[in-house]
Design a protein that fits this description.
- The protein is α+β, with helices and mostly antiparallel strands.
- It has one domain: phage-related protein like fold.
- Helices cover 27% and strands 30% of the residues.
- The termini are far apart.
């Protein structure tokens, strides 16, 4: 019994998920990096709206002139709470599992262990997809606005976690699928918008319809560098996510078409990059950080019960209900998304 309890303890499951390979998600891996794990329930963070300044001239021997830290702000941000769970019933472990031999010889306990392993993998992947959604929202809007579920998912409310006043957007005079489109000029303008905001551009990710319009523009294709690259790593990491490498623009920026989709909270399938849009930023100097807040739970029973706080990216829990003969596996994570420089990328609507 002791070994059974040890297998399903939080500490054991935590070690298991920490050893699991992380699900790679395209936008998150390109433009965001994991931040620190924070002990407090809110975190102070700095972000700025970049601006290029020159040092002033002064008359000799008269001192100096103060230069403002342009656009620098310190704010306090809260953490979201992500808490998916899976329920295992007696029926789940009493009957043959999918793929198991028809005359399977697994015991219910063995099936329970296999279900735990599968559930932890799938819950971890689901949490990472939510982080990807948070990064997507910050990139496209400069805001983190979330739906929070209450009463076991029967109700939900909208909460604004963070609004960074994102304004670094661009719309060309002529759409890229129209006659007279000047894609070369538009690319340079987008690059300069990010540069003026003290950011860098080494990567542009565009919706498939934008990529199609660009590749159909014979004038721009004269400047597209189609150097061969080894796409093996990208194809391995992002298999099935609709990532295509198109080449390099005249500034040496990598161009990608991204056809990935996700199931949104309203039940509709939506494109990760909305139709007609592109995102220009840096995958080397990532503009976003994703820190995680503390996770607190009650451990032990009756007089031995006590609160325990984990300073971790995600923590699994097992909750049993003897009355209904069910066990829940729950994975809790408390991320937020913070931009270091809100002008370090640009969102362009080119169609």
């Amino acid at each position: 019994m002791a070994n059974f309890d040890l297998l399903y303890s939080t500490a054991t499951m935590l070690k298991a998920i920490e050893q699991m390979p992380r699900l790679y998600t395209f936008l998150y891996d390109l433009f965001a990096q994991d931040g620190e794990n924070v002990a407090e329930d809110t975190a102070l963070y700095d972000y700025r709206k970049g601006a290029v300044q020159m040092a002033p001239f002064v008359v000799e021997h008269t001192g100096g002139v103060v230069m403002n830290r342009t656009g620098y702000q310190t704010n306090r941000v809260g953490f979201t709470t992500i808490s998916p769970e899976r329920i295992v019933t007696l029926e789940d472990i009493a009957t043959r599992a999918f793929g198991e031999k028809v005359l399977g010889d697994r015991t219910p306990e063995q099936r329970a262990k296999e279900l735990l392993n599968r559930d932890l993998k799938e819950l971890t992947a689901a949490v990472q997809r939510r982080r990807e959604w948070m990064v997507r929202q910050m990139l496209l809007t400069g805001k983190l606005e979330i739906f929070r579920y209450l009463n076991d998912g029967l109700e939900k409310e909208t909460t604004m976690v963070l609004d960074c006043n994102f304004t670094n957007t661009y719309t060309p005079l002529t759409k890229w699928n129209q006659a007279g489109a000047n894609i070369l000029y538009d690319m340079e303008t987008i690059f300069n918008l990010v540069y003026d905001g003290l950011g860098q551009v080494d990567t542009i990710v565009m919706a498939p319809d934008v990529a199609h319009a660009m590749l159909q523009n014979s004038e721009y294709m004269k400047y597209l560098d189609m150097r061969n690259v080894d796409m093996g790593e990208i194809n391995t990491r992002y298999a099935g996510q609709g990532v295509r490498f198109l080449g390099y623009n005249h500034d040496g920026v990598k161009l990608y078409s991204y056809a990935g989709k996700f199931l949104d909270d309203d039940g509709a399938m939506k494109a990760c990059i909305p139709a007609g849009k592109l995102i220009a930023g840096s995958s080397a100097v990532k503009p976003l950080r994703v820190p995680h807040g503390p996770i607190t739970k009650v451990e032990g029973l009756d007089e031995n019960a006590a609160f325990r706080t984990f300073i971790k990216k995600e923590v699994p829990f097992r909750l049993g209900d003897s009355g209904s003969d069910t066990i829940k596996t729950r994975l809790v994570s408390r991320p937020t998304v913070i931009p270091d420089n809100i002008d370090a990328w640009c969102v362009a609507t080119v169609l």
